[in-house]
């Protein structure tokens, strides 16, 4: 009989219990035992929800205290030498040190000498806003089974009477997603050292009773070299046989295309395909599927919150069942449900018109079971569910809230001139420098400053209605004034207002733009304990009123130094929202860009000399296949310029990008024509700048000199060394000095010394360069 399967469930808990437990452990408020107990309770709840929904194959080991790739690093003992780990198993402090780095006092407590350890690099998980920790590999790399987490969690569920399907990141994707610390070394050369560890794990799982193991190989949807294809063939030949459980090869985020025959030929029990992103791959899969394979169909969107078109999904499902029979077809989500909020029922105040259009993780489980029952029992058994889905979709398509004729008319009237600055960069940068009067190597930050507990309490009180708007806004003004004063005392050259009025860089704008809806509890994990509430973008976008003007102009009145106006860019507002699926993404992004263009114009008219339009999601939106990238980059660049190019040449436009591989989009980054770009570079030791050097990036750059996602405070000498590396690539006249990213998640006790060190490092180099500069 057909089965309903799930690939993964959100980890964080309905009330973000995991976040509070992990952060409590870091702060010393919770013991290791308390942290593990919270994790155990969450896993039990999630397994029981899936069991109650009627899911036939429930995943285990999809849970993580921080990141599933980090779990795999720990699993195979791939801990970099700098963390001082000697085994036999990876302990919790080593685990979190890889994620966050470690300061001197933390090292001393563990008996390790040193001034601090930088964490692993972090980058985007394919084209999502989830960040994973990047494995580091070298030619002498060894592996061993250094964690029993997949086995432990399988047995934990079994003790509850719940049979699960353990989830493991596949060995080839694990190597492909890592980085070599030795130039020119291919991590795939380590495959034969890695496979025995996977083999040992699989044998233990089978001995414990696991019949199936889900082995995720998402890299199969990428452009692969022949070497990588051969690695897949070799890996699964080694991992097949009577000693091992049946393997479910899981792919997602796109079509396998030329890799489809490879995936279907591997000796596994079942192959999972993402038919939400790539429904066109069903027909060739049905034609090529070996007779002993099962096909798992990803028919419910694991990346977005719109209710499934059950009729369209059922048509694909029935097509597969007709070709293969019920016993060779499973129905599941397109990918893990970790990318969507947990439960629509946690949104009591959701707009009643929009609510029927949506499905969160628990509702998506119900959709999977509905599709299963449709095949098993016939349409009459699920008539009520089918009719509700049809009605919701019809009402959504007919809703006047989707369409704003004025927005569409304005978009139709845009001209090419709206996406061009008047003067080329060298000429306008000279005008900007004259206006701003900044020193060589100007220092600044990215935008946000620590969101203190008092600030969060005031914001919560205001939203509850227990604090008046007047009192709340007076508090925000006082916070901004204090933040400006702190920056002046530190010695920064270009200041920011600190963003105390913003709980999130996307949510803040979504709350003020027409066409967006912001949830109360729609949390998803971005990285580690960082959770965000992606807005739901359901209709045409417009800006009813200025969004940042009051706070930026107030901050500028508090100082004689320039204050940057900080906006979130159109691509990032698009990418970090649950985007409407009833029109091309490019059209939606252009609507956002026009709304931001109005905000930029208001800031400039108010005398703000520097406006930063952050685009950390530019690289994230890049299609996974190379041939599809030029079209995306063309409209993404157009949208940024549509938002930014309405200013005078004397107004300086900044942008910020972080935690992504930029090497293959440098032409597009240059085409944005931002006067200054700030980028994440500290975790990679400025390696990223090699690509900027080879490309000869023409505008000004601020490579991050310290990693803000770690509590570690780098020394002056460390930052100075990074800046010296940057100066080997970037002329001093075009080099800015800043952290990697915004500082909202850090504490003032970490931020102030780190920024003082940064300013000192910049001043030291400035003194050495001054004779040359003059």
TrEMBL record:
Coiled coil: none annotated. Zn(2+) 1 binds at residues 656, 680, 741. Its cofactor is Zn(2+). Its EC number is 2.1.1.14. SUPFAM superfamilies: UROD/MetE-like. Zn(2+) 2 binds at residue 658. Catalyzes the transfer of a methyl group from 5-methyltetrahydrofolate to homocysteine resulting in methionine formation. Belongs to the vitamin-B12 independent methionine synthase family. This is 5-methyltetrahydropteroyltriglutamate--homocysteine methyltransferase. The gene is metE.
């Amino acid at each position: 009989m057909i089965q309903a399967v799930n690939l993964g469930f959100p980890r964080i808990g309905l009330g973000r219990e995991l976040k509070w437990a992990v952060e409590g452990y870091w702060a010393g408020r919770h013991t290791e035992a308390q942290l593990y107990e919270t994790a155990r309770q969450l896993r039990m709840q999630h397994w029981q929800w899936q069991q109650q929904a009627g899911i036939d194959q429930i995943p285990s080991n999809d849970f993580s205290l921080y990141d599933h790739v980090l779990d795999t690093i720990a699993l195979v003992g791939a801990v970099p030498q700098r963390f001082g780990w000697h085994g036999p198993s990876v302990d919790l402090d080593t685990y979190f040190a890889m994620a966050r780095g470690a300061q001197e006092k933390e090292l001393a407590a563990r008996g390790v000498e040193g001034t601090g350890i930088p964490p692993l690099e972090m980058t985007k998980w394919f084209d999502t806003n989830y960040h994973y920790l990047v494995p580091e590999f070298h030619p002498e790399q060894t592996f061993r089974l250094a964690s029993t987490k997949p086995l432990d969690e399988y047995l934990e569920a079994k003790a509850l009477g719940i049979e699960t399907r353990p989830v493991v990141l596949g060995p080839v994707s694990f190597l492909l997603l890592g980085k070599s610390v030795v130039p020119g070394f291919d991590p795939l050369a380590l495959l034969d050292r890695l496979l025995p560890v996977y083999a040992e794990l699989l044998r233990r799982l089978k001995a414990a009773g696991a019949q199936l193991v889900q082995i995720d190989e998402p890299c199969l949807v990428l452009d692969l070299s022949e070497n990588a294809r051969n690695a897949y063939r070799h890996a699964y030949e080694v991992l097949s046989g009577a000693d091992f459980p049946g393997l479910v090869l899981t792919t997602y985020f796109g079509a396998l295309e030329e890799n489809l025959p490879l995936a279907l030929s591997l000796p596994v029990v079942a192959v999972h395909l993402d038919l939400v992103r790539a429904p066109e791959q069903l027909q060739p899969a049905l034609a090529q599927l070996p007779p002993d394979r099962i096909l798992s169909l990803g028919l419910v969107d694991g990346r977005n919150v719109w209710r499934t078109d059950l009729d369209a999904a059922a048509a694909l499902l029935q097509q597969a069942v007709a070709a293969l029979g019920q016993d060779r077809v499973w129905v599941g989500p397109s990918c893990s449900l970790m990318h969507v909020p947990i439960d629509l029922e946690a949104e009591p105040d959701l707009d009643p018109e929009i609510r029927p259009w949506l499905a969160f993780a628990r509702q998506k489980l119900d959709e999977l079971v509905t599709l299963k029952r449709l095949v098993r029992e016939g349409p009459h058994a699920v008539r009520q569910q089918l009719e509700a889905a049809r009605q919701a979709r019809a009402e959504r398509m007919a809703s006047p809230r989707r369409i704003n004729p004025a927005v569409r008319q304005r978009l139709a009237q845009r001209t090419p001139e709206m996406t061009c600055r008047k003067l080329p960069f060298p000429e306008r940068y000279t005008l900007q420098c004259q206006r701003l009067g900044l020193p060589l190597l100007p220092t600044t930050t990215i935008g946000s400053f620590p969101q203190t507990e008092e600030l969060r309490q005031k914001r919560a009180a205001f939203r509850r209605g227990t604090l008046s708007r007047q009192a709340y806004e007076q508090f925000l003004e006082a916070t901004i004034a204090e933040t400006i004063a702190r920056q002046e005392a530190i010695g920064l050259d270009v200041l920011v207002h600190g963003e105390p009025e913003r709980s999130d860089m996307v949510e803040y704008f979504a709350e003020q733009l027409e066409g967006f809806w912001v949830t109360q509890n729609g949390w998803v994990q971005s990285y580690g304990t960082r959770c965000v509430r992606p807005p739901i973008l359901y209709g045409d976008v417009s800006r009813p009123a200025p969004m940042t003007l009051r706070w930026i102009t107030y901050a500028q009145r508090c100082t004689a130094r320039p204050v940057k106006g900080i906006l979130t860019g159109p691509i990032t507002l698009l990418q970090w929202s649950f985007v409407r699926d009833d029109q091309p993404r490019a059209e939606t992004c252009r609507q956002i860009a026009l709304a931001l263009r109005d905000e930029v114009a208001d800031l400039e008219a108010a005398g703000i000399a520097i406006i930063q339009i952050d685009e950390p999601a530019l690289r994230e939106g890049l299609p996974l296949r190379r041939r599809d990238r030029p079209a995306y980059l063309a409209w993404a660049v157009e949208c940024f310029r549509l938002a930014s190019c309405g200013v005078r040449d004397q107004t300086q436009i900044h942008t910020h990008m972080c935690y992504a591989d930029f090497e293959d989009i440098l032409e597009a980054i240059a085409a944005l024509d931002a006067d200054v770009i700030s980028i994440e570079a500290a975790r990679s030791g400025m390696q990223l700048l090699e690509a900027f050097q080879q490309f000869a990036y023409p505008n000004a750059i601020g490579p991050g000199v310290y990693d803000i996602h770690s509590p570690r405070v780098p020394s002056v000498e460390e930052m100075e060394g990074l800046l010296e590396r940057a100066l080997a690539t970037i002329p001093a006249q075009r080099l800015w000095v800043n952290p990697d990213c915004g500082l909202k998640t850090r504490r003032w006790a970490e931020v102030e010394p780190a920024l003082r060190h940064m300013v000192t490092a910049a001043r030291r180099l400035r003194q050495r360069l001054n004779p040359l500069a003059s």
